[in-house]
Amino acid sequence: MSGNNVSVLDDDVSESSTNPLTIFSDLSERPQYNLPGLPLYGRRDNLRRFGYRIVCHWHRDFEFIHVVSGETMLVVNGETRRMRAGEGVFINSRRLHYLFSDEREDCRFVTAMVDPVFFGGLWPDLARAMLGRMDDDMSDYVMLNADESADRKLLFGIDGFERTMGACVHDRLRSLDAVSQAATLCSLALERVVEVPKPIDGSAGRRISGRAGSTPPSSPDSLRTFLAMVAFIHANIASKITLDDIAHAGLVGRRACCELFRRHAGRTPNEYLTDYRIGKGRELLAGGDMAVGEIAAACGFSSTAYFGYVFRRRMGCSPSEYRARECE
């Protein structure tokens, strides 16, 4: 989604305040909406809060991101783009995506999420029209730049929607404004989504003109294979895991295994494994009183010293220092 504060779950459990995201074993996220029962989400956040890497995930919701300071790398369905202050993105439904900074540079951003079912349920014709823009052969994402007037309307709309969602907590009538703003965001974004032509030669990579983008839609079998390998990693985090083990879990060879991780997660299998172990270590450090050595073993590190070495490289501090900071 990993070096993140994140819960990866097999079954439905309640969220913890130490877990900004709730991710299931198939990498799907359960959004934590601002108001129970209203499938809209708006929040300002910092990349630092996620350990400078948000875990690879997907959800049914449309997602809008506006970077207000700093910069970050964005990965959508394996395609990587840089986003700087004043830029943003619309991410289509059910696309694997995440933000990260290998340089551990912070980024402040605004996120808006809207469940398309909320509006699609109003009228069957509207649902069919929206589903047509969410299909696999449509744009995975649309990049936004404040230098473009059409994009500014969306970027300012993301900010305004987030402020309105905050106001809804104290004044439920403001949710009418939030619904209106969410509808506008979806309308402006979906009109920018276009069909991505399939390459004539069947080659893997492709781009379309303008600032909407996509990688080729993955076949259901390809995605299922990737998720099977991810589930194996999550279920066996405490054990020694090799590349052959991961590939075997997906019933593919090493080369295909690496290609699937590059496409869907933008990482090698071993990088994903290390990210996930560090993320689980952060969760255990912040959420309990297990000894550092016990956490190292539970996360699959061969020794406490090696856990500390990898943790410091990723987080810039020792596990003990991280725990002291998080538990203040």
Description:
There is one protein chain. The radius of gyration is 20 Å and the shape is globular. The protein folds into two domains: 31-213, Sandwich (Jelly Rolls), CATH 2.60.120; 220-326, Arc Repressor Mutant, subunit A, CATH 1.10.10.60. Helix content is 41%, strand content 18%. Strands 3, 4, 5, 6, 7, 8, 9 and 10 form an eight-stranded antiparallel β-sheet that branches. It is built from eleven helices and ten strands. It is an alpha+beta fold. Strand 4 (62-76) and strand 5 (79-84) form a beta hairpin. Helix 3 (149-168) packs antiparallel against helix 4, helix 6 crosses helix 7 (254-265) and helix 9 packs across helix 10. Residues 1-19, 200-211 and 213-217 have low confidence and may be disordered. GO terms for molecular function: DNA-binding transcription factor activity; sequence-specific DNA binding. This is AraC family transcriptional regulator. Residues 227-325 form the HTH araC/xylS-type domain. Pfam families: Cupin_2, HTH_18. Keywords: DNA-binding, Transcription, Transcription regulation.
List keywords for this structure.
11 helices, eight-stranded antiparallel beta sheet, 328 residues, disordered N terminus, Arc Repressor Mutant, subunit A, 2 domains, Jelly Rolls, alpha+beta
